[in-house]
Amino acid sequence: MQTQQSQHKHKTRAEVLRERVRVRLAVNEAGKDIAAILIANGVVLGDADWSDIFPHWLIATDGDKVIGCCQIMHGKPVGFVEFLYVDPKAPYKLRVIALHKLAISAMATLYIAKSKYIAGFIDQQNWKLSEVLQKHKFTKIAVGAVIVKVLV
């Protein structure tokens, strides 16, 4: 007869961490958390209004804390994923899991929206992410700069 302990499979640390990170569509209240993650990663957009972001952002959470985000822009034939960032203060493994889950969710969202391609800008200094994406059959098509202008 099996003991109670042998009937229950113990989860690995990696399984526990993967289960902790959830990805969902961001509601307007998450705008301040998204802004904080962007600022922590050096993306400062001055007087941007972060109170009206729905339905264009996905967030990754660890419990109630937002630890990652990305902006989804539907388009045909090309949809875009931008501002894919995680909280640099979050533990390394949670950051990796959040990036992975956000990327998969972004691809699924654009696939459902009937985008044929997914595109996004990667900072040239983030060569590690670029290498990882290229290993997953992403193709580098251009090198450039992101520019912004306030429209108000």
Quick take:
This protein has 152 residues and is α+β, with helices and mostly antiparallel strands. The protein has helices at residues 4-7, 13-20, 31-40, 92-112, 127-135; strands at residues 21-25, 57-62, 65-73, 78-86, 117-119.
Binned strand content: 15-25%
Give me the side-by-side strand order of the main sheet.
1-2-3-4-5
The secondary-structure element order is HHEHEEEHEH
Mean pLDDT rating: 91
Largest sheet: 5 strands, mixed
Taking pLDDT < 50 over at least 5 consecutive residues as the criterion, the unreliable ranges are none
Structure characteristics:
5-stranded mixed sheet, 152 residues, 5 strands, alpha+beta, 34% helix, globular
Word description of this protein:
With 152 residues, this protein is an alpha+beta fold. Helices cover 34% and strands 21% of the residues. It has 5 helices and 5 strands, in the order ααβαβββαβα. It has helices at residues 4-7, 13-20, 31-40, 92-112, 127-135, and strands spanning 21-25, 57-62, 65-73, 78-86, 117-119. Strands 1-2-3-4-5 form a 5-stranded mixed β-sheet, with helices on both faces. It starts with a helix and ends in a 17-residue tail after the last helix. 23% of the residues are buried.
